[in-house]
Amino acid sequence: MLLTNPCVFAAGDTYQIFVPVKKESVMWVKIGDKCYYDEANGVLRSLSRVHRITVPVKALDEAKKYTVCNQEIKGRRKAYFNKMKPLEEYEYAFTPVTGDEVRCYHISDTHNRVEEPVKAAEEFGKIDFLILNGDVPNHCGNIKYFNSIYEIVGRITGGNIPAVFVRGNHDIRGSYAEIFGDYIPTVDGNTFFTFRVGNIWGLALDCGEDKPDTNPEYGETICCHYFRERETQFIERVADCDCHKDETIMKKIIVVHNPFTMQYKEPFNIEEEMFTHWARVIKEKIKPDLMLCGHLHRTGIHPVGGDIDVFGQPCTVVVGSKPDDNYFKGVGYIFRKDKTDVIFTDSDGKREEFTVD
């Protein structure tokens, strides 16, 4: 009944477990003696083919296993006396992020590719958590494109380790973009949030579209400037809170699809004043170690003051995705207290290794 392995996304102080299914069903997750349901105000959800169950980070980290309980439903269109098929249970081990050497793989801009990014990740080897950083579906013009998210995460993680998902600009295009938030992790409905995996603290940001809202390509369906104004207030709140000051944090990372401190040519030269403000607040108050990006369809390590630092880069930026025909290049990280190894791998089996102090 399950279409892929579960995808355990870290967002806020929760894990949001997404499970696509082949047929209409109801679902819940059992951790120890407690059940967590995919429900809407007390009604078990069955109309969507992707279930979403939110569980506390602490509960799953301590239990180190969970059971997906799925029950196919017959006749849900009836108001009374629905019929259920026998309950199916799938048990998964779960390994929370621990220790002072943390391995992570970063994938962005797959644009519906699955095989090639999975091969690139396998070339890096064992990981403790996975990052998907936008433009994983090519666009949201067809809901079937969402499946590539769960296929990639399900195959790489096996449902056994956490992942992080950040929205990209192509994820805002198409008629199903307005419900995309139901199919990816959000916090209070927002696609920007903080997360914590072990001793790695992260800030997930969303730059929205990459051209002005009035660009004819969008057909008057975009209000990303308003969205980014709300996000600015969120960044300021996070900067002034203590969540990133915990002494147990080893690394602080910014995960954002678009490297927003570089300067683009028209019509991509949007929000320069706002992005400068974001960078200044993040640099002065959050003091991150690395910013992880995609969007450019190339790879590279860019220090502060380097070639893409125009609006006050808050830290070293790693651009880590290069898609091509039947090819994909991503980037792996080995986070340590005093340094981070940055290892680019591709679907052809090639590796390039660097170190960022």
Describe the structure.
This protein has five helices and 22 strands. The chain is α+β, with helices and mostly antiparallel strands. The protein folds into two domains: 7-93, Sandwich (Immunoglobulin-like); 102-356, Metallo-dependent phosphatases (Purple Acid Phosphatase, chain A, domain 2, 4-Layer Sandwich), CATH 3.60.21. It has a 15-stranded mixed beta sheet that branches. Strands 3, 4, 8, 9 and 10 form a five-stranded antiparallel beta sheet that branches. Helix 5 links the parallel strand 16 and strand 17. The chain is globular and about 65 Å long. The chain starts with 6 loop residues before the first strand and ends with a strand.
Short note summarizing the structure:
It contains five helices and 22 strands. It has 357 residues and is α+β, with helices and mostly antiparallel strands. The protein folds into two domains: 87 residues, Sandwich (Immunoglobulin-like); 255 residues, Metallo-dependent phosphatases (Purple Acid Phosphatase, chain A, domain 2, 4-Layer Sandwich).
Explain the layout of strands and helices:
Layout (H helix, E strand, L loop, with lengths): L6 E5 L2 E7 L4 E7 L2 E4 L1 E2 L2 E2 L5 E7 H7 L1 E10 L8 E2 L3 E6 L8 E6 L7 H10 L4 E5 L13 H11 L4 E5 L26 E5 L2 E6 L18 H17 L10 E6 L15 H15 L3 E4 L4 E5 L13 E9 L2 E9 L4 E7 L4 E6 L1
Parallel strand pairs: 1-13, 11-12, 12-13, 15-16, 16-17, 17-19
Antiparallel strand pairs: 1-2, 2-7, 3-4, 3-8, 5-6, 8-9, 8-10, 11-20, 14-15, 18-19, 19-20, 20-21, 21-22
Helix pairs in contact: 4-5
